[in-house]
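Whiteboard transcription, Tuesday session. T.W. wrote the structure tokens on the left side:
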């Protein structure tokens, strides 16, 4: 009987201790959950790992070794021993930069900038000391090579820009503005005059050398101001008068932005023409003065 009472008392004590441990566990769990720590009933594991110590900060200055002047805009990369980037900075107007490695260890510094040769420093060791590491790095100028660079300009876009610069909107010229697409659509192009004849500009006449033989009046188209009689090659007439075949004076020829003569117009290969514009005398005189008092023919080539 006595043995049974002692056994019963032991069981009660174990039950009380068990409930006390459970209350401690539940209380501890609530505290850890409030602190943002995730726990499980299965096990509690504590892992202690020491965070790597941050390395010394690098305070550097980049200089041009030819002029001993600061180099602004240099790109500085921190590379580990495997060549992987671990940090990056750029030099300011004074050539200075600041860079902090993620941890103590050995690193390279790589410097690049347009107009300078790439610099790769020897392997540098950074400890966890508080004092910064101060460096002065020289960069050597290098010419910027443009070999193989090809820039293509749309000749029609250039022609449009030239006209707008002179206060003329190509859209307002109507059929007096002839683009490359329209020129390419002409099946037979005998000469540049064929392009103008195809455009059917009101009042325009193309007078070629074979049409300039002496007529009943023994006359030829009259050159505009500043033009010589010997300059006739192909005459583009916009002004009617009492000259050969009813044609008037010859319009000024402007080839790729430069005033030219009618001989150049006659010799020009029509396949090289990118765009053309015909200006009536009132507009041409404003731009080119009295030498364009008979109008102007503007030609842009695929140069």
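and on the right, the sequence the group agreed on:
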């Amino acid at each position: 009987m006595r043995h049974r009472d002692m056994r019963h008392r032991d069981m009660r004590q174990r039950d009380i201790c068990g409930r006390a441990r459970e209350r401690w566990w539940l209380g501890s769990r609530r505290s850890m959950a409030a602190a943002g720590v995730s726990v499980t009933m299965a096990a509690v594991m504590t892992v202690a790992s020491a965070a790597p110590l941050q390395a010394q900060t690098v305070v550097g200055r980049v200089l041009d070794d030819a002029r001993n002047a600061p180099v602004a805009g240099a790109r500085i990369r921190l590379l580990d021993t495997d060549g992987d980037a671990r940090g990056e900075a750029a030099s300011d107007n004074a050539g200075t930069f600041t860079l902090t490695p993620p941890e103590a260890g050995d690193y390279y510094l790589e410097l690049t900038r347009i107009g300078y040769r790439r610099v790769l420093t020897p392997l540098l060791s950074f400890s966890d000391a508080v004092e910064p590491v101060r460096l002065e790095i020289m960069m050597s100028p290098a010419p910027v090579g443009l070999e193989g660079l090809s820039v293509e300009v749309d000749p029609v876009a250039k022609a449009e820009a030239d006209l707008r610069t002179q206060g003329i909107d190509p859209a307002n010229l109507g059929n007096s503005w002839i683009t490359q697409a329209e020129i390419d659509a002409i099946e037979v192009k005998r000469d540049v005059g064929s392009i103008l004849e195809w455009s059917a500009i009101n009042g325009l006449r193309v007078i070629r050398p074979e049409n300039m033989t002496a007529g009943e009046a023994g006359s030829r188209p009259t050159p505009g101001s500043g033009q010589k009689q010997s300059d006739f090659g192909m005459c583009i007439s916009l002004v009617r008068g009492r000259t050969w075949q009813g044609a008037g004076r010859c319009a000024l020829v402007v080839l790729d932005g430069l005033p030219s003569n009618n001989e150049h117009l006659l010799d020009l290969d029509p396949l090289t023409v990118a765009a053309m514009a015909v200006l009536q005398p009132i507009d041409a005189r404003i731009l080119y003065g009295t030498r364009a008092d008979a109008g102007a023919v503007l030609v842009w080539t695929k140069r």
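Someone added at the bottom: DSSP finds six helices and 16 strands in the chain.
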